[in-house]
Amino acid sequence: MNAKHRVITTTLxxxxxxILFVPAASACGYPxxxxxxxxxxxxxxxxxxxxxxxSSASLAREQxxxxxxxxxxxxxxxxxxxxxxxxxxxKPPIPDGAPLDFGYGQWHSDGTEIFNSxxxxxxxxxFCLGVWQQTGPYTYMLNHxxxxxxxxxxxxxxxxxxxxxxxxxxxxxxxxxTLTITAFDTKGNQVDRVTGQVTGERITVDTTAP
Length: 210
Hints:
single chain, 210 residues, 8-stranded antiparallel barrel
């Protein structure tokens, strides 16, 4: 590991560790413990462009899906990533591109959604629920609610609301957009807020890589 990598990793670990001391700040959108292996990732210059920076193979799959599908839909299963954006003034600061969470989500045809967080332990609650609405031909708004529990006592220690505004690619294979995570204590007082980018890649019966 080079010196630059060590600086990024140390900074990110310190930022996430600081968040953990804020009640409810780690709810289906933050890791529940510092992860020294986390490194910053490339943010999209245009978060509402799902195909920005994708590989030629991904573009080929997208074009094929667009040519065979009558209309793209966000309904289905997705591999999802949350990246920090605009939190350098957060206390402690979180670098742009730092992973906030990852996991698998499902958007249902009845306007509901569920997310399985990979950044949280089950004892702290790693599933959370949302409702969505289509706002344009390829745009969607998600309002997502999460609970957070103390892993030792099992007691509720806070709640969070995650709001996403995303754009689906014309072939329906990817989506991307922005998110805001607002954390509250058990009395409903806001205790933290971070912003970021969200990306989703569709999982199908032919998907072979997790």
